[in-house]
Structures are given as structure tokens and as C-alpha cells.
Amino acid sequence: MAPVGGTAVQDHVALAEIELCGELIIAASAAQERLSLESIDEVLKVAEERGSSGR
User: Fold this and answer.
1) Predicted TM-score (pTM) of this structure
2) Are 23 and 40 in contact (CB under 8 A)?
3) Angle subtended by helix axes 37-44 and 12-30, to nearest 10
């Protein structure tokens, strides 16, 4: 049973994953074809993350 009161626990990693999944779902529903790996990387901002890590 969940505690009553205002004690909400937030898992920031889980929330970020849910947001990314939502972005993928939106992109996939708007696409005419299957998303390419490059399109998925773009939606997930993979290249931006790699670029900001200095590699």
C-alpha cells in the first residue's frame, strides 16, 4: 500500500527513459516508413550526446 501524504519518489532516470520512448512513438507515428537508425539517433539526440562528451 502506498503511503498517504505528499511523499512522491521520483526516479529521474526512469522519467527520462519514458520521455525518450514518447519521442520515439511520436516520430514513428508521424513517419511514412520505418524509422532508420539515423532517424532514431536523431530523435534520441545520440549524436549530440557523443559530441558533448568530447569524443
Assistant:
1) 0.64
2) no
3) 140
Q: Are 42 and 28 in contact (CB under 8 A)?
A: no
Integer Cα distance of 10 and 17 in angstroms: 13
Which positions ≥6 away from 35 have C-beta within 8 Å?
A: 24, 27, 28, 43
Per-residue model confidence as pLDDT tens digits over 2-46 = 556 666 668 899 999 999 999 999 999 999 999 999 999 999 988
CA distances from 25 to 1, 19, 48, 53, 54 (A): 32, 10, 20, 27, 29
Cα(40)–Cα(55) distance, integer angstroms: 20
Question: In this structure, what C-alpha cell is assigned to residue 47?
Answer: 549524436
